[in-house]
């Protein structure tokens, strides 16, 4: 799974190789950060579509995903809502930290990537 930015309409996130895990785990682990949706586009499920696709991409590449759930700006979801939202994608809480809630998602049993148009249409309709 290639590190870098992912975008869908007004939603974006960054996938990176985590430096916070032991070196031997980095080959099969990716970190999600900078999940962002423009204020005027919030509530339209753009981030949900993008996160679904990113999780499918991780499964297809047999990657464990990690992230830290934390509030980023005024008007955005608070940490508790973010933890609840990430849980819907299969993330589990590993640890509460001073900077947020550290979470991880293991590879699903039957990884299959759907075409982007199908993944997006299922979320938007």
Short account of what is shown:
The chain is 26% helix and 30% strand. It has helices at residues 46-60, 79-87, 116-124, and strands spanning 4-8, 11-16, 29-37, 64-69, 92-97, 100-105.
Could you tell me the CATH topology label. Answer: Aminopeptidase
Would you identify the regions where 5 or more consecutive residues have pLDDT less than 50? none
Average pLDDT confidence is 89
Order of helices and strands: EEEHEHEEH
Q: What distance lies between the first and last C-alpha atoms, to the nearest angstrom?
A: 28 Å
Overall 3D geometry?
A: globular
Q: What is the strand tally?
A: 6
CATH architecture annotation? 3-Layer(aba) Sandwich
Q: Radius of gyration, rounded?
A: 14 Å
Name of the level-1 CATH class: Alpha Beta
Question: Could you explain the architecture of this structure?
Answer:
This protein has 125 residues and is an alpha+beta fold. The protein has one domain: Aminopeptidase (3-Layer(aba) Sandwich). It has helices at 46-60, 79-87, 116-124; strands at 4-8, 11-16, 29-37, 64-69, 92-97, 100-105. Strands 1-2-3-4-6-5 form a 6-stranded mixed β-sheet, covered by helices on one side.
